[in-house]
């Protein structure tokens, strides 16, 4: 069976993480790996998660299977978090959720659901997260790239994006990012989101909103604008949600696929298909992460601790952005990187080529993903000087 099986190249992002781990150069700066890190490079368990986990273990009486839709209380709590406590979307019963193994699991379920419903294709703004295409194509979808971000101006090419969006029809799907676009950090403004909704209402395509950084841009309410407004104004919206970053539950593989439809009957029908697809794949999601999230969101005290921690993380990312831009300005790079403080979340894209990225890694021990994605969590007072000095040499060669 496997006599002729060839060895595949490692995944671009996971391969870089491995490479960085073996690099012993003292000046090394890892801006690659897509996890939140503190200044000393750690990704600690969040305090609220630690407390919730202890409570979950204490209450645990069985390891019997969880229900197909997920850990008890998880879906209801996630819906409340995403749509707000008093939303029509949830109160009407036209919105459902199914717990998934992380955001990746949710995207794969979404892909299979769309393929099952004969979606003509899915359009994604370029560049997008490196795993979007593999995940959605593996489910049988045709993934088309449309303009989104202009690397030359470091800004969203909104006219180019809209021109492509206007060509989509009722059998098409548009992949959108929730707050904190990966890899650019450049999010649509609320006005731009409204304009996309106007076109979706007219053309009838389905938005799929991939929400992996809820709470990392501004706050949980502001970041939910795209989901809340689209589901308020459009008849059908699919959402994939990851708890990896905002709850720091990366390895617990916790996320959800959410559908907001026309009525409770349609929502229940779509949920039955999602559960059916999951059953034919991994059966039901791992319970532990979902139980932790449910424990936090059902406790006002733990929710407050978690929200405060999110705010601290958020502020730290903003500080790193400012630190880099200020240091770049002083180093001779001028305003070349000033757009970075206008962007959101962990990532921004540096104006560089793949060759520049290789030089940064090989000559300067600075690890950057693809064609210039950096994780701002890796930038701090202790390394920003060396970083901008190296960037100056490479960008202005
Ligand atoms: C845009 C985006 N979507 C989805 C995911 C999936 O997250 P996970 O499967 O780790 O929950 C990620 C993770 O990096 C992401 O950046």
Structure commentary:
The protein has 397 residues and is an alpha/beta fold. It folds into two domains: 12-43 and 315-395, Alpha-Beta Complex (Aspartate Aminotransferase, domain 1); 65-298, Aspartate Aminotransferase, domain 2 (3-Layer(aba) Sandwich). Helix content is 45%, strand content 14%. The chain is built from 15 helices and 13 strands. The chain has helices at 12-22, 47-59, 74-83, 88-91, 102-116, 132-138, 158-165, 190-203, 220-223, 225-233, 264-279, 287-297, 300-333, 354-364, 384-395, and strands spanning 29-30, 95-100, 121-126, 143-147, 149-150, 155-156, 172-177, 206-211, 237-242, 255-260, 347-349, 366-367, 373-375. The strands form four sheets. A seven-stranded mixed sheet has the order 2-10-9-8-7-3-4, with helices on both faces. Strand 5 and strand 6 (155-156) form a beta hairpin. Helix 2 (47-59) crosses helix 12 and helix 2 (47-59) packs antiparallel against helix 13. The longest helix is centred in the last third of the chain and has 34 residues, at 300-333. The chain is globular. The model has no long low-confidence stretch (mean pLDDT 96). Pyridoxal-5'-phosphate (PLP) is lined by residues 34, 102-104, 129, 182, 210, 212, 242, 244, 250, 255.
